[in-house]
Amino acid sequence: MKLIADSGSTKTDWVCINADNSIQPVEAHTVGLNPFHMSDDEFRQVLVRDLLPQLGDVEITDVYFYGSGVRPEVEERVTGLLREAFPGAQTIEAHSDMLGAARALCGRTSGIACILGTGANSCVYDGCKIIHNTPALGYIIGDEGSGAVLGKHLIHDIYTGVLSQRVRNMFEQETKLKLSDIIDKVYRQPQPNRFLASFSEFIHRHLDDDGIREMVYSAFSDFVNLHLSRYGRPELPVSFVGSIAWYYQIQLSLVLQTLGYHVGTILKSPLEGLITYHQDS
């Protein structure tokens, strides 16, 4: 039986595929397994303590792990940790979340694959491997179009007066936050990127406001102009995975079409596409 994992920094979703390619009703969920932030012992404990009990006596023959932080230089390390948990597996692979997104969105055909969630990333995929990737750089100096950067723009535009007093009043009433609270969360508390990305819900609720809508269009235009245009492949379909792409797909599609790109598939989560990819393998 094949075991597929889609791992972010917050959570990991695991699903099993039977030998006849039917989906096993066993699903498992654990915390995120990011090798950049976790020691081997921490990673190992999640597998042994949290994952294996959920799988029960299911016999795993193949493991395909896709996760944030799985850069080429740590693939062997992650594969080794998975091998400890599944010593009887014939095949164990660990790959980046970007390759997972590309396989989920494009399958075995060429295309541009993008992640737009809390963070942002993109690549050119040739149907087998990633052949070009502009670095994401994180929300402080990159991640254009991501939830964290949308939230950053919202806070900036509210408190510098770019957005109207009406928007500021709505924001403070709905979030119950003051500027001092925001400064504390961003500069003194952990995971400010997730805090900023949480404001995407407010943004989405108020897309009827001209200023907010223009801010969203501008963020997505930055993503296209600073990342997709660097690939020089406007003939390829551009596909997306992630919560921001999913909930803002109308605005995102409009920006892409205006700038001369063809929109391919948009998925909220890569897991569905990864299941299809590995059922066909």
Automatic annotation (TrEMBL):
Organism listed in the record: Xylanibacter ruminicola (Prevotella ruminicola)
InterPro entries per the UniProt record, alphabetical: ATPase_NBD, Euk-type_GlcNAc_Kinase
Protein's recorded name: BadF-type ATPase
